[in-house]
Every structure is written in structure tokens, then in C-alpha cells.
Amino acid sequence: MTGAIEKGPKPQAPANVKGSTTQSNNDKEGRIDKFESVRPFFENKLSKKDLFKLEGELRKRFPLSKAQQVFKKRIHRRGCAKSSGLSNTQKKAIGLYNLSRTGLLYEDLIPLHNMWNSYMENYLGLRHLKDSNTFGDVTSPNYDETMQQLWKADYHGAYIKVSKSTCPSLVGVEGILVFETRNMLKLLGKDNILRNIPKMSCEFKLRLGDYELSFLGKNFMVRSSDRSIKKLKGMRQISLFSFN
């Protein structure tokens, strides 16, 4: 065979939205032209009402027609960034909230307690409280601000003692706070025993520098994570803390 090889037509790219709309309009006009050519036949067979409906249907655009399809770009939206940490359900499933009664050593938590003392000293400004004569009295200066700070503070690592309780066996129990829930405080005593203390029936005391802080557990029944973002409200809760 001689001569140049004839090249076939190049494949055309899919029509864009504008081209598809133009083609669909041409198809609609073609349907109307064909209808006009057979209009006399339908006028003899159909009533004016049915003829009007038929003409209206022919003027509609049919989305299922290939000529009417409009190709839209799919926008892949990025959802909210997923947290890399574990959910509460997963933490419970693997037992992160289940602390053994034995196995923890009190001496291992002393650095945590020292760290908590430094945290509270800087957080509350104990030197400033002492200079301003703030002793937990409602009439003392900066009382409301101090109560808000104490309410939102984190007490993991504090050395807490049960001063009063409706259950006599709980009175005098003390230790470093290892874990806090809405209803319980888990204290590790010097005998290396972890004890679960209910908040509802107890009054607690803890040492804070030159101050001694006391609070009722029933007014403290909030998770520590929620307490840090909630505001202390009401006169009943303002008397939650008192300095002796």
C-alpha cells in the first residue's frame, strides 16, 4: 500500500455545560418542528385541551435524555479533622478508667503532688492572696475571683483528707488524688491502697500553702473537664470553698 495513512478524527472531549445546554435547545426545537408537521393529524383526533397538553409536554426538557445531561464537577469536601486520640467509649473498653486497688506506689506520686503545689501557687497567686488579706471571707477583696479560680482548678495530685462524712468509716481517709469522676474521688494513701471516696456524703479538706481549703463534695459533683469551662454561680456554691 502506498500513500499517506489517513488519520481518523480525533476523539472529542465531553461537552461542557454550555455546549450541553445548546444541544438540548436544538433537540427541543427539532421536536417542535416535527410536531408542527403532524399538527393537522392531531387536531382531527384530539380535543383542544389534550392538544395543548401534548404541545406543553414537547416543550419540556427531559433530564434523563443524554442530550440534557449536565456534567457537574464533584467537589470533595474535607470533613472535620478526626481526633487522633481515643474516644471515651474506647478508653472504657481498654480499661483506662479501671485503676487497680493495689499496684500503685505512694512514693511514685510525690513528684506529682509537688508539681500540683507549684501549679496552684502560680495559678492562684498565693503570695498576692496573702498580701491582700484574702482568707475566704465573703467580705474579703477578690473573693469572687478567687472562688472562680478554685472552682476551675485541677486537683489531680492534691493531698485530700475526708474531714466529715455520713459514713463514719470514711472519716480520716486521706491520700493523693489519682483520678476524679463526677461522683467519686480516687485517693492513694500512704499504705499504697487506692480508695474510692464518694463525693456526695463527704466534706473534704486539703492543704494549700499557708491555707487550708475545705469543700462539700455534694457541691463538687461535676467532672473536672466540665468544671474548667463552667462558671461558678449561685450563693450556695460561692460558699463551696472557705479558708481557715
Helix-strand blueprint:
Layout: H1 17-37, H2 39-45, H3 48-58, H4 88-93, H5 106-124, H6 126-131, H7 143-152, E1 159-165, E2 174-180, E3 184-188, E4 194-198, E5 202-208, E6 211-216, H8 224-227, H9 235-238, E7 242-243
Antiparallel strand pairs: 1-2, 1-5, 2-3, 3-4, 5-6, 6-7
Sum this structure up briefly:
This protein is of the alpha+beta class. The chain has helices at 17-37, 39-45, 48-58, 88-93, 106-124, 126-131, 143-152, 224-227, 235-238; strands at residues 159-165, 174-180, 184-188, 194-198, 202-208, 211-216, 242-243.
Sheet bearing the most strands, described?
Answer: 7 strands, antiparallel
By CATH, the architecture of the largest domain is named Roll
Give the CATH superfamily of the largest domain. Answer: Ribonuclease P/MRP, subunit p29
Give the domain tally: 2
